Amino acid sequence: GVLHEDLRLLLDTALPPKRKKVVLGVGDAKMGAAVLEELGVQCQTGGVVAELMRGIRLHFSALVRGLTAQSAAKAQLGLGHSYSRAKVKFNVHRVDNMIIQSISLLDQLDKDINTFSMRVREWYGYHFPELIKIVPDNSMYCRVAKFIGNRRELSEESLEGLEEIVMDSAKAQAILEASRSSMGMDISPLDLINIESFSRRVISLSEYRKGLQEYLRSKMSQVAPSLSALIGEVVGARLISHAGSLTNLAKYPASTVQILGAEKALFRALKTRGNTPKYGLIFHSTFIGRAAAKNKGRISRYLANKCTIASRIDCFSEVPTSVFGDKLREQVEERLAFYETGEPPRKNLEVMKEAVVEANEVVAEVKRRQEKKEKKRKKREKRRLEALAAAAEEGAENSVMETEENDVGAKKKKKKKKQQQPEESEVEAEPEENGLEEEEEEPLPKKKRKIVVEPEQEEEKKRKKKKK
After folding, report:
1. What are 290-341's pLDDT values in tens digits?
2. How far is CA 468 from CA 168, 174, 457, 461, 463, in A?
3. Exposure winner among 11, 235, 244, 334, fewest CB in 10 A?
């Protein structure tokens, strides 16, 4: 109902001074009511206005100078994306879809593990029927069956391994004694291999279920810490899953949250005009189990109220903390004590004031930690960039040095060649000067032996020397 600032500014600049006489055509009735309330301008929102708006929208690219149909389509697409993004308020760390999927998978795994364990019990029970009464737990039964295998091979040496699995020395001894006097049939090695492989699958499924439960707890502490602190991670996740999302759960009234999950019983009671159900999914909470039979309905209503408050705090707070959930849990505990002993609980106003003070401290601490992390990240990024820049500079210097060395090497080679040339000419000249006298007496050195001088060239050089 509040008019947007940009629209108000546009209307203020576009409308004439005597705007009370102006009738404005607006396509949306809500916007027309807002304009009338804020600016006092009469607005018309009939069928003619809608047709006019449709025509303007159709020929908008022709009416506005410099706007093409392609750019208008891009603008519409960008506006749609920004509107959707603002509507969704997408945050990676607060995605409740993962909670919904994981709690559904957890329930499915419970059913599957139960079914498969019963199959292992029936299958292995033909060979060792006494084990079912000694080990009632499903996953433990599968581990024991995989460890024992053929009961005839069980001996005192494997007693220590049995104790590690069942965590009880008396049980391990009972299994050993039962295996010696069992009434079960013998089993072939091939059947035993199949039973062991299936038991291994069931054990891996149960281990995966434990890991999934830990993941659900960590996710709930990120997305809905107050709700999980109040009612527990599993029940809170079931409430979010049943509502569809945390936002939907926050929009529900407390009376709906109370019977969430008992819709069938509610409609049956309304149809037969019987008593409506007192609780739905929140029955799995420990509070209702601890309450007396006559107080179950009252504590259920009180717990639903607190769950609604916690879900709204989690949904709409910028930095979600578990402070409010802990305080609300204390209130439910006090109400339970009040029903049992008559001790009056604290008022909600006092508790919420304390919670607000503590939550502000926690939020300040969280923001401080985030700032430190951000500073450290920036420092690491800066160091990384500096290291890259230094490496690039070193690479450039090395390449320059290599080019310079190559140039210097080439110059040195040229100088050496030039020096070698005059030395050779001197070597050629020496035998000429010393002449014929030394040729016969002393043998020439190695360098001089290589040079073969023709008599015609010697005469020409002698003539040139004489002329000089």
Report:
1. 888 888 999 999 999 999 999 999 988 888 888 999 999 999 999 999 988 8
2. 122, 128, 17, 11, 9
3. 244
